[in-house]
Write a structure and sequence with these properties.
Blueprint lengths: L5 E5 L3 H13 L6 E4 L2 H8 L12 E6 L7 H10 L8 E4 L6 H8 L2
Parallel strand pairs: 1-2, 1-3, 3-4
């Protein structure tokens, strides 16, 4: 069993999932990668009701912003609003060019 951080890839585009996994493989990244295909799956994994407040969640989140069911920005808000996940590293991935000027203010930058 790998003892490093898990990577939660939250991405609904199968081609982008394949590309990301291939990049990890080519760069010898051996962390366990879990894939959530929409925002709801990400929330279900990260914030289950039965996870204790002091649980050690060793996960890095790679988060697409444009997702079905629950948007990436809403997923990020939920992550940051919950004591169990507020310190998780989250990397935003998107090709959402037409709204790039809206992303930075929404993230508080």
């Amino acid at each position: 069993m790998h003892r490093g951080r898990q990577i939660l890839l939250v991405e609904d585009n199968p081609d982008d999932v394949t590309l990301t996994l291939r990049a990890f493989e080519r760069n010898n990244i051996t962390n366990e990668v879990l894939v959530a295909q929409d925002g709801a799956e990400a929330i279900d994994y990260l914030l289950p009701e039965d996870r204790p407040q002091d649980a050690d969640l060793r996960t890095v989140v790679l988060l697409d912003l444009k997702l079905p069911k629950i948007s990436g920005l809403d997923v990020l808000r939920r992550i940051r609003d919950d004591q169990r996940t507020r310190r998780l590293p989250v990397v935003i991935l998107t090709s959402w060019r037409e709204n790039s000027r809206r992303v930075a203010p929404a993230l508080g930058v």
